[in-house]
Design goal:
single chain; 204 residues; 0% strand
Length: 204
């Protein structure tokens, strides 16, 4: 069995604070945008938090988040960057999800639960370790293309975020060399639960 292809150490060290900077800035933007539309506040506070996350060492929240959760997934960072950009431009970011998109969300939730069971050593197969191999990458790549089956989906930027995350993983192996870490992390997984619940409530 060949050794897994890992990203260069310097790239992992750059990705961790940069990724958390984008995620934290996006979270602050969510909160700020609910209370004010003042341009200076809406732009300024997320920017300050992002710069804080880029500080070196223990001064940065990214340092402590990295110790607790490692680096965010590529897909989570792309989703946060896309949502933040759309919000700051005043563009609508919520579209009616089609069946292929909901199916992809369900697959991600199931995989997340299986990875959790694998972490607790409750599965007969080491599912996480399979994420270093080419077959898992091929399956994930095909799954991320599923939402493109919806009519008009190819014209939406959001539909291409998951395939782009896989492409960046292929090119850079971020964040850990494991494809599961590229498209799914605990925060994104929890967020997908809320997203699916929202879809169910809207349709009911």
């Amino acid at each position: 069995m060949s050794a897994p292809a890992l990203p260069p150490l310097w790239l992992m060290q750059v990705w961790l604070p940069l990724g958390w900077a984008v995620v934290l800035a996006s979270l602050v933007l969510v909160v700020v945008h609910r209370f004010t539309r003042h341009r200076g506040v809406v732009w300024g506070l997320p920017l300050l938090v992002a710069l804080w996350a880029l500080l070196p060492g223990e001064l940065s929240p990214a340092y402590w988040l990295g110790l607790a959760f490692q680096a965010p997934s590529v897909l989570l960072v792309l989703v946060c960057a896309w949502w933040s950009g759309s919000t700051l431009r005043g563009a609508p970011v919520v579209a009616r999800p089609g069946k292929p998109w909901v199916a992809l969300v369900l697959v991600a939730l199931v995989v997340g639960w299986l990875l959790l069971l694998d972490t607790l050593a409750q599965l007969p197969v080491a599912l996480y370790a399979l994420g270093f191999d080419a077959p898992a990458l091929a399956v994930v790549a095909l799954a991320t293309l599923l939402p493109l089956l919806q009519a008009g989906a190819a014209r939406r930027v959001s539909t291409w975020l998951a395939p782009l995350a896989v492409l960046l993983f292929v090119l850079l192996r971020l964040p850990t060399g494991n494809v599961w870490d590229a498209v799914l992390d605990p925060w994104l997984w929890l967020g997908l639960h809320g997203y699916l619940l929202r879809v169910v409530l809207r349709r009911s």
